[in-house]
Amino acid sequence: MIDWKLILETIGILIYATFMGFIFMGIERKAMARIQRRVGPPIYQPIIDTLKLLGKKESVSHGFIYDFGPVFALGASIAALLFIPIANFQLFSTNADLIVVAYLLEVPMLGIMLGAMSSGNPYSAVGVQRGLLTMVAMQLPYGLALIALIQHWGTFKLNDIVALQQAHGWSITVPALLLALIVFDIVFQAMLGLEPFDIIPAPAEISMGPMVEYGGKHAALLFTQHAVQLFAETAFFAVLFLGGASNLLELLIKQIAVLFISIFIASIYPRFTIDQAAKFFWKWPTIIGIIAVLLTM
Amino acid sequence: MNEIPIILFTPLLAGVLAWLINVKGVRELIGVIGAATPLAFLAKLYPTIVNNPNNPITYQMTVSGFKVTFTLGMLNWYFAAIASLVGLAMAFGMVSTSKNGYDWLFALMSYTGVLGVFLSWDFVSFFLLWELMTFASFMMVLKRNRHESLKYFVLSVIGAYAMLLAIALIYAKTGALDFDSIRQALYMDAMLGSISKGETALIFVLFLTAFGVKAGAWPLHVWAPGAYSETDQSYTTFFSGALSKAGAYGFLLLYILMGAKLYYALGTFHGHLTFAYIIAWIGAITVVVASFLAVLQEDIRKLFAYSSVGQVGYILLAFGLGTGLGFAGGLFHVLSHAVFKGLFWLVTAAIILQTGKTQFKDFGGLAEKMPFTFAMGLIAVLSLAGIPPMAGFASKWLIYEAAISAHMPLVAGAIFLGSALAFAYVVRFLYAVWFGQRPSDLEDVKEAPLPLLIAMAILAIPNIVFGIAPGLVTNYLNKALGGEVVGGNYYKLVTQTGTYNALTVALLLVVGLAIAGLIYLYGAKARRIPVTNTYQSGNPVTEEFNLSIRRNFYLPLKEALAFWLRYSFDKFYERIAQLSEDFADTLREGFYNGNVQAYSWYLAIVLVILALWGVL
Q: Is B577 in the same domain as B496?
């Protein structure tokens, strides 16, 4: 009793998500370029980059965990993606709920850090430290936003949340959840690793942080992981606050809308230092989050 | 005659024998057999327990006029089985790390104490064995560090005598010492109200102190970092894995014995039971404070000690929710904390045994030298950080669900923060000990000895098995809690609001890893290069450079928290201890001043008092 339909759907969504994830990365670069009055690369540029990295004749390795880190990160991203209801495809979303997905979306970070640490590079270590501190800082407002959402809809199941939104209007139409959305969107910026919270890679500051030692196929894996993660996180956002979607096109519009907000914020703000980021996250987003939570009680 | 006395007293007997014989090889054999016996008997009794949930096995005996009762019901069995599993791992670990009979005597004595606390069904045996447990663990710490052991002992004594006072109050009011009668009497009294509100609150606070000390709840956690680190690390497996659960069990007992009475006496607060609400907040504060402190530690043992305190905080928090789901989550976390933290301490024991170092600044690059220990450490890390599908995730998931469903959002927010902090400190451990450049004095480190590896395997297997099949635990807990609290089957957990299918998560993770692995294999073959062949802003690097960040890894966090870190309960207690010592000195010098006239004045004053009283 193998469910062939589910398997085909899964394969289809995986290919689609990877492809669209790369396109999102292209959109990001293109939009940033236009904002700065540049022409920018073509929109399929990240795909070319990744293929080039995969085609390198040699890659170097610092040991087993160094190889395992990126593999684990991509594997966890794929697993996270498959538990999110993507438009009209439910995939495995009945098997796991919001908490599981929220956790799975963080696991790739551990994979990247595991690999980065085993390289023994000091820049990687600084990147890992900043990554973890960002996570510690953002987790409290992030948790509060999710709690507000769960309390309002009374369920942890993602497909139920979508169904309820389709019956009662999107989450953002509820005032308390609008506050939660603001908090979530601030945290989202850090989840995507965009300015002002691109503290983890911090190019020009600590030479790409955790990714400094990676090249060749390892970097290709990390690019792919970023694409899948980008697709999964934007879809997660759409599912939680924008009423999910009934088909892939609708979902795509919502994802791009979410992405554009992030790009606009990212292109006009400089980077926070890590202690500023921690203090920021524990101040306004936390306060707004607590208000949102109390309003939904 | 049944199995209970055998389960209880074999470890103690084995400890005494190991101490008396004290021949290398023999004492280890006796110790391991003594530690394995309770587990074997508990396993043998499992069908009996599960098939007669309402008719527990009991054993009674008379000790100097008191009739003491031991019971093996669903709940007692659960705690005792966890303790004996950790106890067995401890015994295997001690084969490698302990070199004398003294350690065996007291380690196994505390084993008996813990089992006794879990199996007692009256306050006489409960208190006696509680004291035995405290004393034995104190003796284990005393051998290494006098100051830390005394701190632990004084706090434990305060806890124990708070408990004695509470027991005395209950005995005075109800005239009963066994749990069944007390439960009945207090239940009746909840309606009658002959015990006043103030007295009930006093008993509650006294018990809270007693159990809070053992569980390491904030603000009574100060003994834990010292006591957990200044002892044989194999013993700490048991100390933090099982002995700290005595405190958690105590909180559960509070519900069993006085739940109804406390509810009627203290009422509710915004729809929550007031007394439970207090416990939940103590748990939440413990989680946050201890996890922050764990992140900032520079010593491997201190880090895990604070982490242990934080994780027990989760258990208290879950019990404090007061719902069926909360109890299920808390009880599951008792198991998963015991197995992953026990594993952590065994890994620590192996590291310290093989390198003789404890500070993070002295380690680095051990993953190649001790691959098996590293793999075990990684399992523990994944379980503690709550990576599905490990046991640590399943229990944390239940606590999340319970906290949000119980409408305690801010408490749930504390768990979110706590688990991010847990991520941060386990990565600190991974980075400093296993990865990066290896200091030259660690070149000839070898893999841990076989008994330690066996001990690690004993605790690593449950982490994975109960992670992929969490239903094994929740099905049992459902029966113990008397109702379908958590639904689903072996692989799937279902609550009223959410689902978690551990098997699917595991399978999809494997599928994802397979896809990623294929991409990896497709790429060109990787060439292995040494750690020093690395990017250093384009500069060459040699062995003399220290590339790893070994000190103050989380300095920005320390600076961000500088204001809060100035306040420490440790310093506060030290200050109080100093003050009372000074006060005692003043008293001694003031009254015993060696002046004969002063002593005659005391006599005169006493006579005056007696005269005024009308005696003379």
A: no
Residues of chain A in contact with residue B499, where contact means CB-CB under 8 angstroms, are 94-97, 157
Same domain, B357 and B501: yes
Shortest CA distance from A206: residue in chain B: B537
User: What is the count of structural domains for chain B?
Assistant: 2
Q: What are the angstrom distances between the C-alpha of B305 and each of B125, B209, B212?
A: 29, 20, 16
Instruction: Judge if B396 and B332 occupy the same domain.
Output: yes
Tell whether B555 and B576 lie within a shared domain.
Answer: no
Q: Decide if B23 touches A, using CB distance below 8 A.
A: no
Q: Is residue B138 part of a domain?
A: no
Give the residue from A188, A43, A135 showing the smallest Cα distance to B428: A135
Asked if residue B525 has pLDDT above 60, the reply is yes
- Domain identity same for B377 and B500: yes
d(CA B9, CA B101): 18
Same domain, B340 and B363: yes
Q: Inform me whether the pLDDT recorded for B256 exceeds 90.
A: no
> Are the CB atoms for B97 and B233 separated by under 8 Å?
yes
- Token pair, residue B79, equals 């705690």
Please give the ipTM for the structure prediction: 0.89
Q: Which pLDDT value is given to residue A212?
A: 78
- B608's CB contacts (< 8 A; 6+ apart) are none
B227: Cα separation from own chain's centroid: 12
Q: Quote the minimal CA–CA distance from A155 to chain B in Å.
A: 5
Whether B562 and B577 map to the same domain: the answer is no
| Chain A touched by B429 (CB under 8 Å) | no
Amino acid at B14: A
Q: How many pairs of residues across A and B have Cβ atoms under 8 Å apart? A: 257
* Residue B274 in contact with partner chain A when CB distance is under 8 A: no
Per the CB < 8 Å rule, is B499 touching A148? no
Which pTM value belongs to this model?
A: 0.91
Distance from CA of B499 to the nearest CA of A (A): 5
Residues B594 and B488 in one domain: no
Range of the domain at B601: 572-613
